[in-house]
Amino acid sequence: MADPKDSIADGPVVAWYADDFTGAAAVMEVLTFAGLPAMLFLEPPTQAQLAKYPNLKGIGVASTARAQSPEWMDAELPEIFAQLAALKPGLLHYKVCSTLDSSPQVGSIGRAIEIGVAQAAPAAVPVLIAAPQMRRYQSFGHLFAGFGDAVFRLDRHPVMARHPITPMKESDVAKHIALQSNKIDARYLTLEEISEEVHLPVAPAKPERIDVVTLDCMDAATESAAGRLLWDGRDANPFVVGSQGIEYALVRHWQDTGQIAKVDAPQGIGPADRMVVVSGSVSPTTADQIAWAKANGFAGIAFDATCVCQTPDDLDKEIARTVAACLRAIAQGRDPLVYTAEGPDDPAVEAFKTAAAQNLSEANQKTGEALGRILHQTLTQSGVRRAVVSGGDTSGHATRQLGIYALTALAPTIPGAALFQAHAEGPMDGLQLALKGGQMGSHEYFGWIRNGGGPQ
Question: Are residues 101 and 161 in contact, defined by beta-carbon separation less than 8 angstroms?
Fold first, then answer.
């Protein structure tokens, strides 16, 4: 096996492909804030783009796979996995949500594993969803996630059990994934089993089957142990699946074994004169953030998302109305906050579902794209240089409307929702942008970004 220190020093340690944009950015922030330069691309990077950044230790590509069908994955994933594998990273990581958002029909982790195994031919596929820094825990195979002051088993989580597309009805990670593929045999390594003597398989248990091993992780010690399993087992198991908990575990292991030094977290970048927020999230967490923002100087502007189910002219008119409202708010010295709903019980949610009928996924994509158009037009016409997109799926669809090709991390907030710098060939180059999953962030998150992130 290669000397881990040599691999840390030479070439990318991780190449990742993420099933949504906020999660993709979260991987980048873990690596960057640990002192390992990383960049997230919105499309597979060209050789010319990579040549501009020769010292990257992490290279990622964001996607909207979490909202897509298995057939979409069959068409899209093989080529991108091959492109990332060609970069010769220590590990090829298919990044999924830390709350396991997926189903056999939408965002299938099982199908992604099938495709990754065809590319990498691993002995087994380690899966690490837990990330203690984010209050995501796996114990004896079951996933738990924090919400407010409490921690809930995933199938009883106030947000994830009510997810509008992929409500979580199963907390057993191995079982949840196995239900998404008839080729997978899934199991878990428990807290009692993970030790220095335990290693990942070096040969397939059954050549005709896919061996998936989910890893318990509850604290710093088990996180470091999981990182050791992943890194030491990379020759036989180069394809891994999980949240940014993968990178947290690797960093913890590298720090504990002296392969990288611990670094201080970056400071904030200072307050913005003005900021624009667009939100397609219906999460109760986002609803609390919207309420705080409206009570603290932001101008709340409702966007009627049912317009995406009407004519193109209706959509254009609603976008123009919303942009005009944003520009008026900025002229009045306020920060516009555009939202489609104020939580899951907002009547706008049911109105949207009724309007979308059987095309909810397509309507969600059109809504995200519309919010991206609103953001782009508002930023371009106002000159504002800081923005937030709220909602995991929304971030993917909206960000693609901005004409940027990559992101790098600027300043931390809560884990998984940092402030980034955009890289573009056009006017959005240098934009300061935060991408926030619906269930992520403290109640004053939008104000935190307005103030520049960093410790508070």
Answer: no
